[in-house]
Amino acid sequence: MRVLYFAWVRERIGVPREEVETGAETVAGLIEELRGREERYALAFSDLSALRVAVDQEVVDFDAPLAAAREVAFFPPMTGG
Amino acid sequence: MAVRVQEEDFDIAAEIDALCAGRVDIGAVVSFTGLVRDLGQAAALSSLELEHYPGMTERALEAIEAEARARWPLQGVTLVHRYGVLAPGARIVLVLTASPHRAAAFEAAEFLMDYLKTRAPFWKKEATDHGGHWVDARESDDLAEERWRR
Fold first, then answer.
1. Residue from the list B93, B120, B123 with its beta carbon closest to the beta carbon of A6
2. How does it associate, per the subunit comment (chain B) (predicted)?
3. Which of A12, A53, B61, B71 counts the most CB atoms within 10 A of its CB?
4. Does residue A64 lie in a domain region?
């Protein structure tokens, strides 16, 4: 699936997007897999209270299922307006 | 188009004219314009960079607009939000609401801004002489949004 990163999450991970092969059933499972990859992921996902996630462009909770998801995005709380 | 995400500036008067063109039933148009401000804190702001999530941003703005239309008798809504690098004083966001009477137009404009602050996927990075830093979401913005859900 396509995984996108925005704002300081993007800066910590170093890329705006990537294709990720995963068998994770939930967003939380995907985060665990990513954390185990490299230090930059562990750093970006160190404090989940500072993060938000969207699955297929809808904001969801971290326990949301990933079945059939095409796009997952991680970002800090939004600051529009 | 009611909802736009764009890099270029907008013309407030032209947007109001477009919203009201050919109509004589509109009694009130409220406009809100958000500007890049320099708070003059530790370091002067040299620019503000707005990042967004193309695709999701438009969907989020349309959902916010639909919710406003469901709550108030609005005859028209315009939402324009800019992204990219903006200088102090630049316009960031425009909200226009049109209704037969002013109360709905004022309330809906406030509602739209409160929801934009917390539900539109934009992130702001301030650049100063001391480097850049991401603007934190404010608790006061969450509280402002919450009051519409009570």
1. B123
2. Heterotetramer of 2 MoaD subunits and 2 MoaE subunits. Also stable as homodimer. The enzyme changes between these two forms during catalysis.
3. B61
4. yes
Of B59, B119, B125, the CB nearest to A78: B119
Whether residue A50 lies within 8 A of chain B, CB to CB, comes out as no
Tell me, yes or no, whether A80 lies in a domain.
no
Per the structure, the complete domain to which residue A34 belongs is given by: 2-75
Q: What is the pLDDT of residue B41?
A: 65
The C-alpha atoms of residue B129 and residue A23 are separated, in whole angstroms, by 45
Domain boundaries, chain B: 3-147
The answer to whether the Cβ–Cβ distance between A7 and B125 falls below 8 Å is yes
Q: Is A81 contained in some domain?
A: no
ipTM computed for the complex: 0.94
CATH of the domain at A38: 3.10.20.30
Look at B53 and A73 and tell me if their CB atoms are within 8 Å.
Answer: yes
Residue A41: what are its φ and ψ, rounded to 5°?
-75, -45
Contact A30, A13 (CB under 8 A): no
Q: pLDDT (tens digit, 9 = 90+) per residue, B33-70?
A: 999 988 756 678 899 999 999 999 999 999 999 999 99
Residue A75 has pLDDT above 90, yes or no: yes
pLDDT tens-place string over residues A35-51: 999 999 999 999 999 99
Instruction: Among A54, A57, A78, select the one facing B123 at the smallest CB separation.
Output: A78
* CATH class of residue range B3-147: alpha beta
* Residue B36: per-residue pLDDT: 94
Q: Where are the alpha helices (DSSP H) in chain B?
A: 12-20, 56-71, 102-119, 139-146
Number of domains in chain A: 1
Q: Is residue A40 assigned to a domain?
A: yes
